[in-house]
Structure formats: C-alpha cells, structure tokens
Amino acid sequence: MMQQSASARKPKPPEMSSTDSLAVALADLDVLLAAGLNAFKSAATSEAVEASRIDYLGQKQGRLRAAQDRLKSLEPASRRAYGQQFNAAKAALEAALDAARVRVERRATTPIGLDVTLPGIRPRLGHRHPLTQTADELIDLFGRFGFAVARGPEVEDVHHNFDALNIPPNHFARDPLDNFYLAADGEPSQPEAPATSRSESALSRSGPPTAMLRSQTSTVQIRVMESQPPPVRVIAIGRVYRPDTVDATHSFMFHQIEGLMVDRGVTMAHLKSVLRLFAESYLGREVKIRFRPSFFPFTEPSVEVDMLWHGGERWVEMGGAGMVDPNVLRSVGYDPEDVTGFAFGLGIERLCMRRHGIDDIRLLYQNDVRFLRQF
Ligand code: PHE
Fold first, then answer.
1. Could you tell which of 166, 296, 318 is best to mutate to test the pocket of ligand 1, judged by most ligand atoms within 8 Å of the CB?
2. All residues at 6 or more sequence positions from 241 whose CB lies less than 8 Å from its CB, including other chains
C-alpha cells in the first residue's frame, strides 16, 4: 500500500541539496562499473568496443567523467572515500577496455577453429590431355583386337626411317626440306661459318646425315620385326616430326598410331576389317571411312584411309595403310613366301579432332585450360 501511494505520487526531482549522500554516490559508482564491465565484455567488434569506450571513458561526455564531477557535490569528508572508489572503478574499466581490444583484434586476425562437421574443400584435380586420352583409348581398343604396344625412339637413324622401309636413296620423302635431320655425332649442330657461306652447312660438311627426328612411326615396324620372329601384332603410338607450315590441320609435330600384323594368310581384307571396326568403335557407328589407292614404298598394294569430316561435307585423310612390301619383310629376315602382313599409320590428332568436333589442331598444343577442361 505504501509503495502504491508512493508511486502514485508525482516523483520529485532528486533533492537539489548542496551535498550528496556518499552511500548513494558509491552505489551509483558500483552500478556504473558493473554496466561498463559488461559493455566491454560483450562488445564483439572493434566498433562496439570504441562505442563503449566513448560511452564510459569518453573525456567530455563519458559516464565516468560525470561520476568524477560528482566529487564536487560531496561533503569534503566523503570525498576521499569516493575518490578511492572512483580511481579503482576507472582502472577496472580501462583494463576492461584493453582486454576487449585485444579480444576483438585476435578474433579478426585468427582463422576460426576447425569445424570437422563442415563439408571439405575438394582439391581440384586435373585430367589427362585429350590427346593422351585418345592414345590411351586406342591402346585399349587395339588391345581388344589382340595388338600389343611397341615403342621406338623419336631420334631415329636414317636406316630405320627410310632404308629399311624400302625408300630409295633418291626418294623425295628424304628431302631435307621435308625432314628434321640432325648433325652427325661430334659435329656442331649450328654451322660455325659466317652467314656468307651458309650453303656449307653442317650437313654438307659432314656427309649424308645419319640421325633425324623420325618423320613416321613406321620405323617401329622395322624395330619390332628386327627383334622378333613372326607372328607380330603390335601398335606403336608416338610423336613424329615434319617441317610443315602450321595451320588448322597441320603441325611440325604430331602423333601417329602405327599398326602392324604379320602372320600366315594375312590379307587386305583383314586390314580393311580392322580399320573399319576400329573407326566405328572410336568414332561411332555412323562414321564413314573410305580407302583410296595410293603408294608407299613399304606397302604393296597401298591405300590412303579417309574419314568423312565434321558436318559430312568433305573427306579428311586419317593416314596410310597397305600390305607390307615383300622387300621390307625380306630385309628383316622374314620369308615373304611364308608370311604376309598389313600395316597402317594414322594421325592421332585428327582422330581426336573428329571425335570431339575440334576444328583447329593448334588448340591441342596451346594448353589453354579453358579449352582442355572441356574434355
Ligand atoms: N608412314 C606413313 C605416313 O606417315 C603411313 C603408313 C603407315 C602407310 C603404314 C602405310 C603403312 O604417311
């Protein structure tokens, strides 16, 4: 009842006496300290810390400043006690401010702790280059037809690149303008002579070159037959080099897949069946290929194999093929009366391009990940 009547009364403004009660002043100081400590403790950002600093420790309008001014309103006898309590409160609030600053600073610079329940960040994996994918797939496909994989060197001797393949010494395929010949052992690869006598190149001074970058993987046919008796059923995949002018379908380096099958009774029908089956397996059932009569010194008869290019408007050469020439078989010690064989050499880039609808061979060598990522 008492309270009710008290609150019903209009609250009087605080007694404007010339002196203040010490007990009330100390109690107010306690409330101020508790509120200030709480404010600094709960400030989560440096902005919140700064706002609390201005609120409590601000030089002009801070609450502590107001509490300090209150000293004057106390009786002189009370001032000492109040002053001591005030200094302690001020020290405590300043310490709380420092602690809060350190806390929000650390939170801003240190990473949040490890949350093992979050999904992991998957490292981005690369993948095989489309040409490598093509090569791997060809190895797989021909493996199912019973072909093993053979390898040969990219730096080849002229014997394996030409002589053993029945290519006569004066054949145009040997033209230095169509091949990358290497200077003979011990000869400088660059002519030492000044530009005026350029014609006297390392080649002409050291006699006919014996080493070159292979211009075809047919070299591996010879190497395989030299190293084993028939029957043979191998493919060889690798780089070949020709000084061609680079354009959308040509490059000075490209990849070939060579195939060789030698056994009793191997015929042209086997060759055509294997290539057709291969083309349908790799490029799809609807692919069209055709065989055109041609000439290679190391096969007789010889054909060129074409495939219908993207859009079906033109034929593009996949490579060459034919029945291994008896001269080649004889030169590696095989008996052409006993065994026969077929061979083929196809360009891997063009197979890859036809398969994926790529229209420019240069895209395969630029290593632009935006392109490569699509395969
Ligand atoms: N080596 C030939 C070329 O690069 C292709 C070929 C291989 C032809 C095997 C016949 C037999 O053009």
1. 296
2. 154, 179, 180, 213, 214, 215, 252, 253
Ligand 1 centroid to Cα of residue 321, in Å, is 6
Residue 105 near residue 322, CB atoms below 8 Å: no
Phi/psi at 215 (nearest 5 deg)? -95, -5
C-alpha dist (Å) from residue 156 to 61, 74, 339 = 91, 107, 27
Long-range contacts of 277-283 (CB under 8 A, 24+ apart): 277/145, 278/141, 278/142, 278/145, 279/307, 279/318, 281/141, 282/137, 282/138, 282/141, 282/351, 282/355, 283/307, 283/351, 283/354, 283/355
pLDDT digits (tens, 9 = 90+) for 138-171: 999 999 999 999 999 999 999 999 999 999 999 9
DSSP secondary structure string, 228-296?
A: SPSPEEEEEEEEEE--PPPBTTB-SEEEEEEEEEEETT--HHHHHHHHHHHHHHHH-TT--EEEEEEEE
The two tokens of residue 200 are 């006297």
User: Which atom of ligand 1 is least distant from the CA of 165?
Assistant: 1
For residues 329 and 343, is the Cβ–Cβ distance under 8 A?
no
Name the closest-CA residue to atom 4, ligand 1: 216
Could you report the per-residue pLDDT of 302-353, keeping only the tens digit for each? 999 999 988 788 999 999 999 999 999 999 999 999 999 999 999 999 999 9
Go through 177-198 and write b for each residue having 16 or more CB atoms within 10 A of its CB, e for each that does not: eebbbbbbeeeeeebeeeeeee
**pLDDT value at position 4?**
47
